[in-house]
Design a protein that fits this description.
Length: 185
């Protein structure tokens, strides 16, 4: 069994992703090189871990990392919009940090608008920025400011480079679109 038979097309190649990661890391270095606060990459689980790993290796300033898991409760098939923290960072108080939330994809914006507010107002971060590798603007329900963005993509469900369908395909090194029959299995 291989993944390749399930992929209809490659949307973003490994090389294109590597280029975007380098560009974003340089942009972040410019933004943070003069700050006297520490940088914390706060990575959302699980989808953003591959992106985090590549990004942090390209960021040439001191930085810490931590992880956060957010759940959005659904009632039936409709998202209720009720969001909570399933697991948070080690520290409750982030006032000594410039926090960069690392996200795989910005879709409706419901999770991120809650999370950015939580990091700023409940965890008291010195500053909060959002870094999302992919952005699907057509799907937005809540306005969210993206400070660092990899690719704007059409309204298609993508997998790979950390992104999953039913917990699969996260370990593909590129990003692709699944064949329709995969959803109907
Ligand atoms: P939202 O912005 O609150 O709708 O949530 C974004 C989350 O939905 C992401 O972190 C992903 O876990 C998931 N997601 C949205 N679009 C896709 C996609 O195309 N492929 C895989 N996961 C997606
Ligand atoms: Mg995710």
């Amino acid at each position: 069994m291989t993944y390749e038979n399930d992929i209809a097309k490659v949307l973003v190649s490994e090389e294109e992703i590597a280029g975007a990661v380098k560009r974003i890391a340089k942009q972040m270095e410019e933004d943070f090189k003069c700050s006297d606060k520490k940088v914390l990459f706060l990575c959302t689980l699980k989808g953003a871990v591959v992106f985090l790993a590549d990004l942090m290796k390209n960021f040439n300033l001191p930085a810490e990392i931590d992880f956060i898991k957010v759940s959005s409760y659904a009632s039936g098939t409709e998202s209720s919009g009720i969001i909570s923290l399933k697991s948070g960072p080690d520290l409750n108080d982030l006032s000594e940090y410039n926090v960069v939330v690392i996200e795989d994809i910005l879709d409706t914006g419901n999770t991120l608008s809650w999370l950015l507010n939580h990091v700023k107002n409940t965890m008291n971060a010195h500053s909060v920025k959002l870094c999302a590798l992919f952005n699907k603007p057509d799907r937005r329900q809540k306005e969210v400011k993206i400070d660092y963005q990899g690719f704007i993509i059409p309204d298609e469900f993508i997998v790979g480079y950390g992104l999953d369908y039913d917990e699969m395909y996260r370990n593909l090194p590129y990003v692709g679109v699944l064949k329709p029959e995969v959803y109907n299995k």
